[in-house]
Structure formats: structure tokens, C-alpha cells
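Table S2 (text version). Query chain:
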Amino acid sequence: MQPPFKLKRPKVKPVHLATGVFVARQGGFFQLKRLNRVAMHQLKVMTTGQHKGRVHPDDPYTSEKLFQELRDAGVLSDRVSREQMEIVRRAVHQFIANDQAAFHGYWPHRPFGNDYTTSDTRLVTMDAGHAPTDGGLGVLLVSALSATPEGNKVLIGIDSILAANSALGDLASPFFEEEELTLRTVPFPDAQELATLMAPQTAALSNLTARLADNFTLETQARLLVLGLCLWVLTCILRWSERACATPFPRLLLADFSQRPRRPVRRASWISVVQARRQLTDYKVLCERADPPESPGNWADLFDFLGKRAGLIQPRSDTSRARKYIEPMPDTIRVLLMSCFRSEEHLLPFGELRVGCGKLGLWL
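Corresponding C-alpha cell output:
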């Protein structure tokens, strides 16, 4: 069966998926060149060319050049010295370059990618000359969700999150430039078949979006919704591959909450992960042997990499040689539970549930 999308890179993190969804939803992004020059205050030594081993003489990131640029643009008042500007740059760097996700993104430097997107439409950015870090999954999600009424509710929730100004965006706003949206629209074939296949998961995402609205801060809403989108993608590749491989039963992922690695339940959970990865590998081979041959990309590695970062698969370390098993983290469990109930349904508080179960002789 022809794959619904060709994965361009398997190492997709939740922040990459968020960037892809935000860019696809907006139809583009801002390059934020000046903000990048302000945030990246540490000079970068050239590694190639005639200036190898030293800072490029025309580097726009140097303190003197940036100070003059900001002065000419009217961003800095006459009372602000260059030394004070550098203090501001270091402070902005702590927020914008969180986890080293922002780099020197413009000439004369050649970054391997630049991504410090947050849930604020003013800060949705990516490297214009770099391949999308989400592997094309953002366009896939937006196209599939827009094909159903429940999916459109999710997209409306995403729009409301992007439309709200964040504290980080307000902090960076003095360094914004007047710029047009850099368009990044990738044509996607009819997603109706995929939307039909994933209708139950899309309905769950709609439940999650309704639960999050007005009950959490915007930052928490964005984080939990992105986790829900990650789970949607993981379920999507499993369901599509099991249908293509004619798997007789739906693929189940057994979670282990025992915290005891030598118990049979841990082994059963590990086996469920192995079987899921094996099915995704079999699907890749099936596509490559088709006529004409197709390559969906390494879906098995995507399942492993994104599953760990979404808090579903343990241990999370890439270098760990331990057997991978399913143990959702607290936020992932919250997403799963809130996705199972419609917003109008009343949830029983855990305290009442515990008392009721105690009267029945059950222990929670």
C-alpha cells in the first residue's frame, strides 16, 4: 500500500513537530534575523575558508556592528551603552536559545538548523534554507485534521494558542523587524483516506483540546496538545502499517507501571515495542518491493525516537542498551486520560474515587 507520506528524517522531537504544525497552519514563518543576531552573543570562529580559525571580519554578530545596527534602527536609546546592550543580549540568549536550540543562523555562518519556536505566532520560525526538522509531519497533520469536523476543532484550538501573545514574545518584541511571512506551503495529496483511518484518534484530540481550553495556561495547553499530536502520529504509522501488512489483530502496546524490570509484565511490554518496530520495518520493506517501489522512510526509528521524547517509551536515553518498554510519563498519562472523555462529561475527583473503592474493599 502506498505510504501516506515519505518521512524525510526520523529524528523528530516534539518541538520539531510543533514547529511543523505551526508553520503549516500559518502557511509560513518569520525569519527573525535581527532577533537571532541579538540572542547569539557569543562570537563564532570560522572553521573553513580564508578566515579559518578566527572571527569573520564582516560578521554581523559582533558587538560593534550590532550596536550600530540597533542604534540606526532606533531600537536603542542614546542612554544605552554597548556594555549594557551585551547584558541584554546575554539575558535574551537564556530564553531564546533554551537548550541550545538557536544558532548563528545567517551569513557568514552555515548552521545545520535553527529552531526556537514557541507557542506565539510572532516567534514561529525556522531556517529558510534548511529542510523542515519535522520530516514533513506538520503538513500531514494539518491536512488530515482539516478533513474532518473534529479535526477542525483541534486546528481552531491551535489557532487560539498561537494568537495569544506570550511573555517570551513580549520580551523579544523590541528586536522584531518589519518582515513579510516567508511562505512555506507544501502540496499534500488528498488526506481523506488517512483522516478516515484516524477518525477515533482525531476525536480523542478534539476531546483533549476542549479539556485544555480555559483550564490551563497557554504554555501548558501547547505542551499537552503537542504531546497529543505526537501520540496521533505514532498511532497513525502503526495503524497504516498494520492495515498494509494485513495484521490480523490491532497492534497493542502494553504499559508496565510495576517499576520491577525482572517481572513478566516488563518483558511483555518490551515484546510489544519490538513487535511494533518489526511491523514498521516490514512495511518499509513491503513498500520498497512494490511496483513501482516506494520508500516511506524509516518509520521504525521515528516510532522509537519520537516515542521516547513524547514520554511514552522508556528508557529515554539514546545510548541506553536497556530493552525499550512502554511506561507513560505523568504528562503523557494526563493527555491520554483527558483524550478519553468529552468536555461535557463530569469527571469523578480522585479523592472520591479512592473513598468509593475503599468501601468496596479495593485499594488505590
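Notes on Table S2: The chain has one domain: 14-31+123-359. Strands lie at 28-29, 182-183, 313-314, 325-326.
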